[in-house]
TrEMBL record, chain A:
UniProt entry keywords in alphabetical sequence: ATP synthesis, Cell membrane, CF(0), Coiled coil, Hydrogen ion transport, Ion transport, Membrane, Transmembrane, Transmembrane helix, Transport
Chain ranges passing through the membrane: 12-30
Main location class: membrane
Protein name (record): ATP synthase subunit b
Topological relation to the membrane, as annotated: Single-pass membrane protein
Stated family: Belongs to the ATPase B chain family.
Cellular localization per UniProt: Cell membrane; Endomembrane system
SUPFAM superfamilies found in the cross-reference section: F1F0 ATP synthase subunit B, membrane domain (SSF81573)
TrEMBL record, chain B:
Lineage of the organism: Bacteria, Pseudomonadati, Bacteroidota, Bacteroidia, Marinilabiliales
Family as reported in the entry's similarity comment: Belongs to the ATPase A chain family.
Record's signal peptide: 1-24
Gene: atpB
Annotated function: Key component of the proton channel; it plays a direct role in the translocation of protons across the membrane.
Domain of life: Bacteria
Name this protein carries in UniProt: ATP synthase subunit a
Length: 164, 376
């Protein structure tokens, strides 16, 4: 019977001992241990989270990089295209200008030729007129060599004056 | 293979070592029976297995280490603290504090006190009247073997756990080290597998210190009871007063933390009205449940640990039974079997130690969970 009857003295001692144990351990052992556990768990969770975030960031960066590269490529293409266009334009412009210039030169040449031609013709005309005067002089001199003729002529001239 | 055989050898050696105090106790037993004690009743030379087993598992006033021959005892005296209502029988004082060595290994009376061997008060200190008749028990708050062992294990536990707490503080946010590594998984297990599911994520934190304390207290004292050499080996968790205190703590915490819902379920449960009026049948059933829960906690732990110690003692006492019946040769012949079975039982007890500590903690957590559950 002694085994299954709790001894009051033992109960009192155990109440004191176990009470002290619970109090002391609660204050000096479990609180720090549980707090440390919690802190470590949160720090691990945080570390995992930040690792995940970093991973995501890296993936984002990669995507960004690719985007940037693609953009650069596109831009390069655009620039190249533009450059080609500009080249074509410049060439075309140059060609146009050259043709214009040539035309101008030709026109000038033509004008000059025309002017020279006119001058030459005028010269010829003058020469012809002088020659004709000279010829006419000679002819008249020859014709007025006899007196009748001379008289006729003067008459004719006097007639003309009368008329006036 | 070599390793396994070494382990087995080691276990055998340890078990033999471990039971040497028991073997010695046997000697004391015989010696007892022949001593000229005043109230010596049954004087038998025969080995009394029942007595031997009971003496091994029950509490005592001094810490018996070993004895040989008739009068050679080595035991560690423990303080006896008594309060008597009859000061005239004890030198005029009511309050007495003396070492248990004054009883000279329970052979002598001291100041009108005696360690009784009668049927009623076996092994307990009783008061004597002037004629040497046993009057009854004084109020006895002696530091017995169980208490001394509990104090030792508690000091051990506090020292270890506070050092771990210091390590935990030092290693905050870092990897655990040393003993911290050993105990943290257990602490996490109690938290995540016992407290959280049983009490709930919101309220479990409040009960963690108690649950951890009770778990480690039971576990350590279970183990301490299995270590067979001083200053260990006393049967702490196999003492019903100890388990009663543990159960009382659980009961007290449950009662203090019981919320409205918990009390309503007890005094006014949702059952048909005729179960509550005119005879409050269900409230009586519920209220008895409140008492039964800690009672069951108390008995389960006590019975399990007590049984483990008893079985080991019984297997060891087989040796002496055989010796006393068929001679020393038979006793010697049976000893390997006894030792093998004892080793098996001790190993089983290691498992039981864990299971009982776990079960006590889990059930406490479940009761706390019930007391704090919200209405659903």
């Amino acid at each position: 019977m002694g085994l299954v009857m709790p001894n009051p003295g033992t109960v009192i001692w155990m109440l004191i001992i176990f009470g002290i144990v619970v109090y002391v351990l609660k204050k000096f052992a479990w609180r720090p241990i549980l707090d440390a556990l919690k802190e470590r768990e949160t720090s691990i969770a945080n570390a995992l989270n930040s690792a995940e975030e970093a991973k995501r960031e890296v993936a984002g960066l990669k995507a960004d990089n690719e985007k940037v590269i693609a953009e650069a490529r596109k831009e390069r293409d655009v620039i190249l295209k533009e450059a080609k266009e500009i080249k074509a334009k410049i060439v075309a412009e140059a060609k146009g200008k050259a043709a214009e210039e040539a035309q101008k030169t030709i026109d000038q040449a033509r004008q000059q030729i025309n002017a020279e031609k006119t001058a030459a013709i005028n010269e010829i005309k003058k020469q012809v007129a002088e020659l004709s005067v000279v010829i006419a002089e000679k002819v008249i001199k020859k014709e007025l060599s006899n007196k009748g003729e001379q008289k006729k002529m003067v008459d004719g001239l006097v007639d003309d004056i009368k008329l006036n | 293979m070599l390793k396994l055989s070494k382990v087995i050898l080691l276990l055998f050696v340890f078990s033999l070592l471990g039971f040497s105090p028991l073997l010695a106790q046997h000697g004391q037993e015989e010696e007892h029976s022949t001593s000229n004690h005043a109230s010596e009743s049954q004087s038998t030379k025969e080995f009394n297995a029942g007595e031997y087993v009971l003496e091994h598992v029950s509490d005592s006033y001094d810490w018996h280490i070993t004895s040989w021959g008739r009068d050679h005892h080595i035991s560690f005296p423990l303080p006896v603290i008594l309060y008597s209502k009859h000061p005239e029988l004890h030198g005029g004082k009511k309050f007495h504090v003396f070492m248990s060595s004054k009883f000279h290994h329970q052979h002598d009376d001291y100041l009108g006190f005696r360690v009784s061997e009668s049927e009623e008060y076996d092994g307990k200190i009783v008061e004597l009247d002037v004629h040497g008749n046993e009057l009854g028990r004084p109020f006895d708050i002696s530091v017995t073997k169980t208490i001394a062992e509990a104090i030792i294990s508690v000091i051990l536990m506090i020292v270890v756990l506070i050092s771990i707490a210091k390590a935990a503080k030092r290693n905050t946010g870092k990897a655990p080290s040393g003993l911290q590594n050993l105990l943290e998984p257990i602490i996490i297990f109690i938290r995540d597998e016992v407290a959280k599911p049983a009490i709930g994520d919101k309220k479990y934190e409040k009960f963690m210190p108690y649950l951890l304390s009770v778990f480690f207290f039971i576990l350590l004292n279970n183990f301490v009871g299995l270590i067979p050499f001083p200053p260990f080996g006393a049967n702490v968790t196999g003492n019903i007063a100890v388990t009663m205190v543990l159960a009382l703590f659980t009961f007290g915490i449950t009662t203090i933390n019981g919320n409205k819902h918990y009390w309503k379920e007890i005094y006014n449960p949702d059952v048909p009205w005729w179960l509550k009026f005119p005879i409050p049948l269900m409230p009586i059933v519920e209220l008895s449940g409140v008492i039964t829960k800690p009672f069951v906690l108390m008995v389960r732990l006590f019975a399990n640990m007590m049984a483990g110690h008893m079985i080991v003692s019984v297997f060891v006492s087989l040796i002496f039974i055989f010796t006393s019946i068929m001679g020393p040769a038979a006793g010697f012949g049976i000893s390997p079997v006894s030792v093998a079975f004892s080793v098996f039982i001790v190993l089983l007890d290691v498992l039981v130690s864990f299971i009982q500590a776990y079960v006590f903690t889990l059930l406490s957590a479940l009761y706390f969970g019930m007391a704090t559950a919200e209405h659903h």
